[in-house]
Every structure is written in structure tokens, then in C-alpha cells.
Amino acid sequence: MAHTLSATCLAIALADARGTLTLTERTDRWGGTFIAIGDTHGTIEIAEDMEAANKSVTDLRDRAAA
Which end of the chain has the smaller Cβ count within 10 Å, N or C? Predict the structure, then answer.
């Protein structure tokens, strides 16, 4: 089975490999919070909470190792 990566997955993987990946909690305009998955160039993706952000990164690492 061929593995495919979206541009978002590729950007996260590159940031992770380069050691520039950040998971930053931010406040939205309604007072709630979200997690910005980013690097030195800016935000790559948004996650609902830290658990979801960590799961995204872990799942991507697992896919890359396969």
C-alpha cells in the first residue's frame, strides 16, 4: 500500500525533524483555547486541544516510521 502525505503532514514532519515544531496554546476570540501546531515560519495546523495536537504529531511519527 502506498503512503501519501498532505502538504500539512509534510510541513509538520519537516518541522519535527528540524527541531522547530511548536505546540502553542492560544486564546480564540470567544475566550476558548486551541493549539497552534507550527514552526519558525508560522502556524501549520490547528488542533482542538493539546491531546489532539500530540496525537496528530505522534500519528505522523508512526506513519513515517512504517
Answer: N
Q: What is the dihedral of CA 16, 18, 20, 21, to 10 degrees?
A: -10
Q: What is the pLDDT of residues 1-57, one digit of tens each?
A: 456 778 998 899 999 999 999 999 999 999 999 999 999 999 999 999 999 999 999
Question: Is residue 66 classed as helix, strand or coil in its secondary structure?
Answer: coil
Separation in Å, CA 25 to CA 7, 9, 15, 22, 50: 23, 20, 18, 10, 8
Distance between CA atoms of 9 and 40, rounded to whole angstroms? 16
